[in-house]
TrEMBL record:
Name the UniProt record assigns to this protein: N-(5'-phosphoribosyl)anthranilate isomerase
Ranges for domain N-(5'phosphoribosyl) anthranilate isomerase (PRAI): 6-209
Pathway: Amino-acid biosynthesis; L-tryptophan biosynthesis; L-tryptophan from chorismate: step 3/5
Catalytic activity, EC: 5.3.1.24
Keyword field contains Amino-acid biosynthesis: yes
Catalyzed chemical reaction(s): N-(5-phospho-beta-D-ribosyl)anthranilate = 1-(2-carboxyphenylamino)-1-deoxy-D-ribulose 5-phosphate
A GO biological-process term: L-tryptophan biosynthetic process
Length: 213
């Protein structure tokens, strides 16, 4: 079976990109949500994307972004994918996909069984799904909170599109998450950091190794 593909989200320095590539991760995520400690400007993200080796999928994470914001990101940064981490509707996902000609990964937050229904509907429009923990009601960030959901909710489930597991994953628990859910792709932000927004190369390497068994 093909090895598990890993996305490391919220890279801010060229050293982060180098660490992600050296570890063998498949995706590098750049965060354009201003309140996040992982936020990067278009100019900074461009430098990071240009430092990425061929084959590393460069993903822009946005939250309910309007067309002007997306226009600036897509024009300024060489990208391979857009990650929609807000409340984007099925129609908005389809619109963004058509407007930019890039694959779109739509995030669905999960706290319980009832949240899984949204995955079926959104998989008609998105190229990939990212199944993350639903943020707490009072959270400032819609993602990157280091919170896990009950992975058992995903056991035996299938969706039309490739999917990625996220939420509270760490080098210590990712192997169990993969074993239990059957995920072939995983995503992490805070679990490979030494402080909010500060990636740790050793933790990135440990995470990829653990995810890929
Ligand atoms: O990471 C952030 O700061 C963030 C802010 C706003 C929206 C999404 C954000 N992160 C998205 C991701 O893809 C994370 O990797 C995912 O939510 C998992 O985060 P974590 O539990 O910290 O590994």
């Amino acid at each position: 079976m093909a090895e598990v593909r890993v996305k490391i989200c919220g890279l801010r320095t060229v050293a982060d990109v180098d660490a992600v590539a050296a570890a063998g991760a498949g995706y590098a995520g750049f965060n354009f949500f201003a309140p996040s400690p992982r936020f990067v400007t278009v100019e900074a993200a461009r430098a990071l994307a240009l430092a990425a080796p061929p084959g590393l999928c460069k993903v822009a994470l946005v939250v309910d972004a309007d067309d002007a914001t997306l226009d600036a990101i897509v024009a300024g940064v060489p990208l391979d994918m857009l990650q929609l981490h807000g409340h984007e509707s099925v129609a908005r996902v389809a619109e963004i996909r058509a407007r930019y000609g890039l694959p779109v990964m739509k995030v669905i937050g999960v706290a319980g069984e009832a949240d899984l229904a949204a995955l079926t509907e959104i998989s008609l429009a998105a190229d990939q799904l990212l199944i993350d923990a639903k943020p707490p009601k009072d959270a400032v960030l819609p993602g990157g909170n280091g919170l896990a959901f009950d992975w058992r909710l995903l056991v035996g489930r299938k969706w039309l599109k490739p999917w990625m597991l996220a939420g509270g994953l760490t080098p210590g628990n990712v192997a169990e998450a993969v074993r239990l859910t059957g995920a072939r792709q995983v995503d992490v932000a805070s679990g490979v950091e030494s402080a909010p927004g500060v990636k740790d190369a050793a933790r990135i390497a440990d995470f990829v190794r653990a995810a890929q068994g």
